[in-house]
Amino acid sequence: MTIQEFNTHVALLRPLLLKVGREFFHSEEEAEDVAQETLMRLWLCRESLPESKSLLALAIRIGKNVCISIWRRQKLRTGFPLENAPQVIGGNQADTLLEEDENKQLLQRAIERLTPSERRLFLLKQEPEMDIGQIALLTGMTSRSVSAKLSAARHKILEYITTNS
Fold this sequence. Notes:
single chain; Arc Repressor Mutant, subunit A; mainly alpha; 2 domains
């Protein structure tokens, strides 16, 4: 599926995915998270997506699975706060490998502290073919809002890394 075809389908799928999220969570914010997460997953596998009739069924199935994943993450967060989680670092690795591993863990913890929408935007921006305009189309936000949220996310990550390294 080309990027242009994908963009065409996104306009049709987004309202349906918002409805799936609303029916599951009864919350606009959570519905938005479901729609964005689902569209991000579809974007990542866009080259192997089926035709439009199958795409609708696939998108709704993924949306429902995303609802369940978000619900499970919420339950885990309430039961096991990240601050109390043990940090596991490999044993007999060289200093450089250990330092790289610690840096990866530090970055991962910083990304996990972002809000779900900031995290999604940050991860979407890491995709090679994603620009601000494409992210705006995918998320239903304006380009200016995407840029502002990305800037805030980068600032939060940098702040967390500098205070915890």
